[in-house]
Write a structure and sequence with these properties.
The protein is mainly α. The protein contains 20 helices and six strands. It folds into two domains: 180 residues, Fumarase/aspartase (N-terminal domain) (Fumarase C, Chain B, domain 1, Orthogonal Bundle), CATH 1.10.275; 300 residues, Fumarase/aspartase (Central domain) (Fumarase C, Chain A, domain 2, Up-down Bundle), CATH 1.20.200. The strands form three sheets. The chain has a two-stranded antiparallel sheet with strand order 1-2. It has a two-stranded antiparallel sheet with strand order 3-4. The chain is elongated.
Length: 492
């Protein structure tokens, strides 16, 4: 999703025309005697307070210090790195009027992979992600902290700057405001999760197909004619993935005429449910890509010399999309847990709880509990944050998006779904072992053999936590998708 962003960042160190043009407009505005929000006035509810020329630089430094009041666990380092890149991207488009010195040091942070420590809580999502972006910008003036290389320790910013021979900047008029206005926290969480969701959706289709084979379900609901007359593109893609993975299946062929009329919904309706989530996430990706390439500062500096206050910092488009994405991902986990439950019930010759000797062994009973717990937690997390708003800044900011909350809980939902799918992986592959010597479809067989190279069949109760950790690692790596793609073609 953000390949274009990375390409753009490579160009920023040499492409300075837009930056210089917008900065010149800000400097000229300081001489015309007029009031410009955040440049020579106070902020938010203090917008009517005019600031003297002698205090303009102190105004910008005070802005960072006063707004850096975030709390909670730090934003993951990888997401903060993306947050920094996104801020550079929007500033580099030349509508913010930031000084070249400030921009250059921020760019140097990205080049040296110096990633600031940013608390995850404290933003209302308008005027953008003020507190998180203030923390991200603090090291410019030798405050705050950077992560160490491993992302484990927090190092004082001043010491890190000195180590790299970097000199803190003196913020100029408009600099602080340009740094903290924007939706970069929301964007970073959303882009990070949505990018990873692309492969997770393919894994969900693969797991559903594995469970279908293990439960000797019917392939009839995946007939392309059924999908085409409903016309939702995602539904057709999912059904196509299942058919591809089931090629050469001896298991399906063995019970083609078994007389079973219909499977439970968690098998039969995989194209409809997975497909709906695909459609929702495709919309969210479109919104996010638009936002990634937008300018969300305030006020904005235009080429003709106009400096206009607006509301591009408001996170509503991103907040709505991330709430929607959380719901879409949660449903992938919801239906996965139902398939896990089916696998444990002992259908069609499978041993109950997927072990031959239960009583002394609990089998895979309790991993399903974990899956159910995570599904339930996701239902709570999917309450949309974007429907809430609390007025702030003495009433000046009377409607906010709460998009930062949408962002942080989206990550939690995504991680929960990873765990839920990892449990279906364990149970589906375990169940498939009991169908031997019949072979599954070629795609499922590749997947089965890959998993068994890393996780053994469980004959009796064991320390399943280790199995779950290995399974989660396989889900996150997704190397089995590449193996399947090499032999059968890429999944849609």
């Amino acid at each position: 999703m953000y390949d274009d962003l990375r390409h753009r960042l490579v160009q920023l160190s040499s492409d300075t025309d837009a930056l210089q043009r917008s900065r010149a407009i800000v400097q000229a505005a300081l001489q015309d005697g007029r009031a410009y929000y955040g440049i020579n006035t106070g902020f938010g509810g203090l917008a009517s307070r005019r600031i003297s020329d002698s205090d303009l630089m102190q105004l910008q430094q005070n802005l960072l210090l006063s707004h850096a009041v975030g709390v909670g666990e730090p934003v993951p380092k990888d997401i903060t790195r993306l947050m920094l890149q996104l801020k550079l991207h929007t500033l580099g488009q030349g509508y913010s009027g930031v000084s070249r010195e400030t921009f250059a040091l921020l760019l140097r942070f990205a080049e040296l992979d110096l990633i600031p420590v940013v608390p995850s809580k404290g933003s209302l999502g308008a005027s953008g992600d003020l507190a998180p972006l203030a923390h991200m910008s603090l090291p410019l003036i030798s405050y705050g902290h950077f992560w160490d290389e491993a992302g484990e320790k927090q190092l004082p910013a001043g010491a890190v700057l000195q180590q790299h021979g970097l000199i803190p900047v003196q913020l100029q008029a408009k600099d602080g405001l340009s740094l903290i206005n924007g939706t970069q926290l929301m964007q970073a969480y959303g882009a990070w999760v949505l990018e990873k969701s692309i492969r997770l959706l393919k894994t969900a289709d693969l797991l559903a197909t594995t469970s279908l084979e293990a439960l000797q379900g019917s392939i009839a609901p995946f007939d392309d004619r059924i999908q085409q007359i409903r016309r939702h593109p995602g539904q057709a893609v999912v059904a196509g993935n299942v058919r591809l993975l089931l090629q050469q299946s001896e298991i399906l062929e063995s019970h083609r005429n078994c007389g079973k009329v219909q499977d439970p919904y968690s098998l039969r309706c995989v194209p409809q449910v997975h497909g709906a989530s695909r459609g929702a996430l495709a919309h969210c990706m479109q919104v996010m890509e638009t936002e990634l390439n937008s300018v969300n500062d305030n006020p904005l500096v235009f080429e003709n010399g106009d400096i206009i206050s607006g509301g591009n910092f408001h996170g509503q488009p991103v907040a709505l999309a991330m709430d929607y994405a959380a719901i879409a991902l949660a449903e992938i986990g919801n239906i996965s847990e139902r398939r896990t439950y089916l696998l444990l019930e002992g259908h069609d010759g499978l041993p109950t709880l997927l072990m031959q000797h239960t009583g002394i062994n609990s089998g895979f009973m309790i991993p399903q509990y974990t899956s159910a717990s995570l599904v339930s937690e996701n239902k709570v997390l999917c309450h949309p944050a974007s429907v809430d708003s609390i007025p702030s800044s003495l009433g000046q900011e009377d409607h906010v998006s709460m998009g930062s909350i949408s962002a942080t809980k989206l990550l939690r939902v995504f991680e929960n779904v990873e765990h839920i799918l990892s449990i279906e992986l364990l149970t589906g592959i375990q169940a498939l072992d009991f169908r031997k010597p019949l072979r599954p479809g070629r795609g499922v067989e590749i997947f089965h053999d890959f998993v068994r190279d890393h996780i053994p069949h469980a004959e009796q109760d064991t320390y399943f936590k280790e199995y779950m950790e290995k399974s989660l690692g396989l889900i996150r790596d997704g190397a089995y998708l590449d193996l399947i793609g090499q032999e059968l073609g890429e999944l849609g």
